[in-house]
């Protein structure tokens, strides 16, 4: 699979739908999720990510958008929620992930640095998938044959800050960390773009050309 496991696209689809449902209901995206979630561990990571991001203190601006997403990986592993801020250059369509605040519950903490590092890497990888990566090809062959020709995030695209807060669960079974960040990150970025430009992009990757096409439509 070119886009990790199925959780990436599944969570992206579900959480952008949750975002649209919240908008249709005239509800805050975080409060809407909490209203429809009974799992206390899920509620805890949502509350933690939103608090650390400063969700309730958000001040809108024309070139910035915020997005939120949550998932329990494969419905039986780690819980992760993430809030992000993106910047959209409306003259070029370029999207930049400015900052991300994640909350994760992996069960009992065995190696906190490992959990944070894995989650930070997952956020960056998902950002690259979501904004840049796609195999290119012509009528006869694949044309993105090496890392020079394959579109992927560069150092200049790395967010200003990534914060990962871990929920402590002493004695609870370890749930793993793995690819818990990839799905929610993609959805949060897409939701933040929607928040900034007022239009929903659904065709991955969400490149500057697609953003400009949406802005000009």
Describe the 3D structure:
The chain is α+β, with helices and mostly antiparallel strands and 217 residues long. The chain has six helices and four strands, in the order αααβββαβαα. The chain has a four-stranded mixed sheet with strand order 1-2-3-4. β3, α4 and β4 form a beta-alpha-beta unit. The longest helix is centred in the first third of the chain and has 20 residues. It is globular. The mean pLDDT is 95.
Task: Describe the structure concisely.
The chain is 40% helix and 17% strand.
Q: Which stretches are low in confidence, meaning pLDDT under 50 for 5 or more residues running?
A: none
Strand order of the largest sheet: 1-2-3-4
Shape: globular
Oligomer class: single chain
Count every helix, treating DSSP H or I runs of 4 or more residues as helices: 6
The arrangement of helices and strands along the chain is HHHEEEHEHH
Distance between the termini: 32 Å
Counting helices, strands and paired strands, the structural category is alpha+beta
């Amino acid at each position: 699979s070119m886009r990790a496991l199925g959780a990436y696209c599944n969570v992206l689809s579900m959480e952008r739908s949750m975002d649209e449902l919240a908008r249709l209901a005239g509800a805050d995206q975080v409060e809407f999720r909490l209203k429809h979630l009974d799992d206390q561990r899920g509620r805890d990571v949502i509350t933690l990510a939103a608090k650390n991001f400063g969700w309730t203190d958000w001040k809108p601006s024309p070139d910035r958008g915020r997005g939120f997403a949550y998932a329990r990986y494969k419905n039986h592993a780690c819980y992760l929620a993430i809030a992000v801020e993106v910047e959209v250059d409306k003259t070029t369509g370029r999207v930049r992930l400015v900052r991300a605040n994640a909350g994760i519950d992996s069960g009992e903490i065995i190696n906190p640095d490992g959990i944070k590092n894995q989650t930070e890497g997952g956020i960056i990888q998902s950002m690259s998938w979501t904004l840049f990566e796609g195999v290119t090809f012509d009528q006869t062959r694949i044309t993105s044959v090496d890392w020079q020709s394959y579109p992927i995030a560069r150092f200049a695209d790395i967010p200003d800050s990534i914060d990962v807060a871990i929920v402590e669960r002493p004695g609870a079974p370890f749930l793993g960390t793995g690819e818990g960040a990839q799905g929610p990150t993609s959805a949060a970025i897409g939701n933040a773009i929607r928040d900034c430009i007022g239009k929903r992009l659904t065709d991955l990757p969400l490149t500057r050309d697609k953003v400009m096409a949406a802005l000009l439509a």
